[in-house]
Structure formats: structure tokens, C-alpha cells
Amino acid sequence: MSDLSALGWDETLASAYRNYDRPDAAPARVLRADRGVCTVLDASGVSRASLAGTVLLGAARDPAQLPCAGDWVVLRRWPDRRTTVEGVLPRRAALIRRTSDKDSVGQVLAANMDTVAVVEPMHPAPDDARLERLLALAWESGARPVIVLSKSDTARDPQAVARQLGELAPGVRVLPVSVHAGTGLDALRPYVAPGRTLALLGRSGAGKSSLVNALAGAEVMGVQEIRRADGKGRHTTAYRSLVLIPGGGAVLDTPGIRGVGLLDTAEGLDRAFADVAALAGRCRFGDCGHDGEPGCAVAAALADGTLPARRLDSWRKLHREVAVESSRRAARLAQAAGSSRRRPRR
């Protein structure tokens, strides 16, 4: 594949690459990253590349700097036929979740996507709280989110479900899709047009791999059966991968996510809860806690039924989580900076 523009290569990336340009270097896009080795695609084809020391050093300071599926990187080809990743070009979008450890470290799930599809199956019934959490993550990424309601053939009235969930997602398009029935796929194809990348985000068993296969027109991702009772399944995809769409752009498939920790996603939360944020902006006092203060627009919306109590509770819960994790991250960075200043001279 000699034309990288079909994968999103543009003048902004070319400008960033000029700092690295040399006869033995080339730009490439990461298809998969696994234990210090990347599968990459450049103008000459697909190859494997190890990480250079400068990349590993940067990742030691911040694991989010490690190359990830979807990244644009700088390759260097050595006389002994080795190929190394010498740098990661600036990301225009990145899905970053908090890891499960206590240090509040970010983990990049996918990079440089134009759209994030939050995939939620219609069987069993969609989970409102999970959708809100994933939408906050999607908005924070810098890409545009959509909701894909997979397995829509299992619902009696898919459009009614889509309208209901649309109330939870102001400004987000909701697309019922059934790979089994072959319906709704045409609405997804513009998101994988040449030069565009679509990332899929959702729990295990949501149908992400089936969507990738349907868009690619071939079985490129393994699909496992799910349990009929609860609709859950094992992780079909154990790694993040960029899949090329014939005649189009690409799809970023991510492993099924059981839990998503939020980190520094205050802006994403405000966009995912745009209805609540708009109400809060109309309160009489700028520091209103929405707990009995006079002139509280949020309380008024609760009273007249405009704002469901569950929606407000979810907004508050996620904001508390982000505040706690942001504080932990700041403390960790301050401690690391202090340790660096106290390091004795040699």
C-alpha cells in the first residue's frame, strides 16, 4: 500500500515528520503493538519493528508515550536489516483510560481515530451508566463519538431504543446495527471512508469483532459465541489492532472492556452530560452544589421531571472519580519531581 493518505496521512503529519526525515527513515502507521514490538505499515508494506532506546526512555517516564495501534511513527531501517521505531508523531486523538493500579497511570487504547463508536448490544438491555462512562472517555479523546447499538435484530423496536438512548447522549448520533440481519451497516461506512479511522469501544461480547468483519468484508477478527443467559462472552480480541478496510480507511478494534477508569476527563464529562452541564450553568450561584441552594436550575429540573435523578447521580459519581484520580496523579508527579531534585550529584 503505497498511498498512506488512505490511512489518514496528511500535511500536519508530514510537517511533524520533517524533523526526523533522513534517507534511512520512513513514516509508518502502527497496526499492532505487542511487548516492545510493533507491526507497522509504511509505503513498502507491512513489517515488524522493535522500539528504540529513546522511545523506551520516554515510556519509562510516561507509559502513555508507548506506541499504540493507530499511532503514526518514524521507522529507521539499519544496514543489518533491523527496523526500529525511533519516535511517535503527535497524536490528534487518543483514547486513554486509567489503569487499575493506585498510581493513576494512563493507558492508551487507540490513537488517531476520527470517530469513536461506543458499541452497546441490545441484548441484554443497554446499560445507561456504562454508556455514559464510555461516552465521557470518547469525548475526551478528541474524536467524535457515535453510539452503535449492535444486535438490533434482537429488539422488537430498535428505533424506539435508539430514541430513548439518544436522550442520554446530547449531540451524539445513535445507530442501530445488526450484522446478522445486515441492517444499519451502510450508516457506518462513511466513518471508514478513505483517510478516516473508526475506533470501536465496548464490553466483551458487544459485537465489535463482528462489526469489523462486516465492514472489511472478510473474517479478519475471530468471533466467539456468547452465553445466551446474560449476553456475556470471553474477550474475543486480546489486543488492539488497526484493520484496513478495502477501498477505504481503517477500523481500530479494542479488547472488550469490563471496567473503564476515568482520568483527567472533566471536559469529556461535561460534553457527555451536556444537559446537566447546561443546567448547572444557569444556577444563581457559580459554586452551586445542587443540594438545596436557592436559584438552583438543576434542582428545578429534578422537581419538574426534566432531569432524571439517576442522570444527576451518575454525573456526580463520575465527577468525584475524576477529581480523586486527578489528585492522585498530581501527587505522583509532584513526588517524582521532588525525587529528581533531591538526586545527589555524581
From TrEMBL:
<dbReference type="GO" id="GO:0005525">
    <property type="term" value="F:GTP binding"/>
</dbReference>
<dbReference type="GO" id="GO:0046872">
    <property type="term" value="F:metal ion binding"/>
</dbReference>
<dbReference type="InterPro" id="IPR027417">
    <property type="entry name" value="P-loop_NTPase"/>
</dbReference>
<keyword id="KW-0378">Hydrolase</keyword>
<feature type="binding site">
    <location>
        <position position="288"/>
    </location>
    <ligand>
        <name>Zn(2+)</name>
    </ligand>
</feature>
<feature type="binding site">
    <location>
        <position position="283"/>
    </location>
    <ligand>
        <name>Zn(2+)</name>
    </ligand>
</feature>
<feature type="binding site">
    <location>
        <begin position="202"/>
        <end position="210"/>
    </location>
    <ligand>
        <name>GTP</name>
    </ligand>
</feature>
<keyword id="KW-0699">rRNA-binding</keyword>
<keyword id="KW-0342">GTP-binding</keyword>
<comment type="function">
    <text>One of several proteins that assist in the late maturation steps of the functional core of the 30S ribosomal subunit. Helps release RbfA from mature subunits. May play a role in the assembly of ribosomal proteins into the subunit. Circularly permuted GTPase that catalyzes slow GTP hydrolysis, GTPase activity is stimulated by the 30S ribosomal subunit.</text>
</comment>
<dbReference type="GO" id="GO:0019843">
    <property type="term" value="F:rRNA binding"/>
</dbReference>
<dbReference type="GO" id="GO:0042274">
    <property type="term" value="P:ribosomal small subunit biogenesis"/>
</dbReference>
<keyword id="KW-0690">Ribosome biogenesis</keyword>
<feature type="domain" description="EngC GTPase">
    <location>
        <begin position="111"/>
        <end position="258"/>
    </location>
</feature>
<dbReference type="InterPro" id="IPR004881">
    <property type="entry name" value="Ribosome_biogen_GTPase_RsgA"/>
</dbReference>
<dbReference type="GO" id="GO:0003924">
    <property type="term" value="F:GTPase activity"/>
</dbReference>
<comment type="similarity">
    <text>Belongs to the TRAFAC class YlqF/YawG GTPase family. RsgA subfamily.</text>
</comment>
<feature type="binding site">
    <location>
        <position position="296"/>
    </location>
    <ligand>
        <name>Zn(2+)</name>
    </ligand>
</feature>
<comment type="subunit">
    <text>Monomer. Associates with 30S ribosomal subunit, binds 16S rRNA.</text>
</comment>
<keyword id="KW-0694">RNA-binding</keyword>
<feature type="binding site">
    <location>
        <begin position="150"/>
        <end position="153"/>
    </location>
    <ligand>
        <name>GTP</name>
    </ligand>
</feature>
<protein>
    <recommendedName>
        <fullName>Small ribosomal subunit biogenesis GTPase RsgA</fullName>
        <ecNumber>3.6.1.-</ecNumber>
    </recommendedName>
</protein>
<dbReference type="InterPro" id="IPR010914">
    <property type="entry name" value="RsgA_GTPase_dom"/>
</dbReference>
<keyword id="KW-0479">Metal-binding</keyword>
<keyword id="KW-0862">Zinc</keyword>
<dbReference type="InterPro" id="IPR030378">
    <property type="entry name" value="G_CP_dom"/>
</dbReference>
<keyword id="KW-0963">Cytoplasm</keyword>
<feature type="domain" description="CP-type G">
    <location>
        <begin position="102"/>
        <end position="260"/>
    </location>
</feature>
<feature type="binding site">
    <location>
        <position position="290"/>
    </location>
    <ligand>
        <name>Zn(2+)</name>
    </ligand>
</feature>
<dbReference type="Pfam" id="PF03193">
    <property type="entry name" value="RsgA_GTPase"/>
</dbReference>
<dbReference type="GO" id="GO:0005737">
    <property type="term" value="C:cytoplasm"/>
</dbReference>
<keyword id="KW-0547">Nucleotide-binding</keyword>
